[in-house]
Write a structure and sequence with these properties.
With 229 residues, the protein is an alpha/beta fold. It is built from seven helices and eleven strands. The chain folds into two domains: 123 residues, D-Maltodextrin-Binding Protein, domain 2, CATH 3.40.190; 83 residues, D-Maltodextrin-Binding Protein, domain 2 (3-Layer(aba) Sandwich), CATH 3.40.190.10. A hairpin with a 5-residue loop joins β2 and β3. The protein is elongated, with a radius of gyration of 20 Å. The protein binds phosphoribosyl ATP and magnesium ion.
Length: 229
Amino acid sequence: MTAVVDAARPEGRLTLAVSKGRILDQALALLSEIGIEVADIATSRRLVFATSDPRIEVMIIRAQDVPTFVEYGAADLGIAGKDVLMERERSELYEPLDLGIARCRLVLAGPHDGAPGGPRPRVATKYVRTARRYFAARGMQVEVIHLYGSMEIAPRVGLADQIVDLVDSGATLRANGLVEIARIADISSRLVVNKAAMKMKHAPVREFIARLARACAARDAHPAGPRRA
Ligand code: PRT
Ligand code: MG
């Protein structure tokens, strides 16, 4: 793979890619725990932000794109959901740390009054590869239908018999008359690291991982604390 060479990025400076959306607030809270504050994030339309630590800049991009930016070296590090990482065909990334944020679970769900769906039920999901792997491992014959969102309505409108999707509180499933049939995976956000950056920027990368690891450990030791992510 040809790495992106960014002449504008000074030696030793680290770029961290974080997804916008629901991971962002908890990721920023974690960064704040290690003394990294991101400037003007609420007001700006920029995508790359300086931080209170001159050695670290933050790039805010779509959840699904974080591993790609890191894999190609456009960012040295990233914070991505395990769901997104599992769905990648191959991974050229280090995944040194479970940050324990944006926790949820990937489940198989179906209508509470639903018929099993015949010999080859249709399953709608955004997580096509992960779903295929799950069913193949169990010798289950299903037709996987790829959707980009709103999986929960698929059974109601007869598009699918079941869905594979993320669940947090369960409110979305309930609101759509669905129940959890099986838990496929526990999900949380992970720190991922570009392999070349791990070699070429070894000291700052290791230091950054260690700081985040300490912040996660401190949070987990005091789970009732006010800043729990
Ligand atoms: O919009 P974009 O394409 O950029 O990405 P995205 O929509 O995938 O991003 P976003 O902001 O939704 O964040 C996605 C990441 O957050 C996922 O990759 C997960 O790692 C993490 N995460 C944690 C979740 C949830 N919890 C979650 N509950 N992502 C989505 N959900 C959705 C779920 O799909 C369902 O629609 O929330 C709904 C269920 O929530 P409950 O509480 O009703 O059960
Ligand atoms: Mg979204």
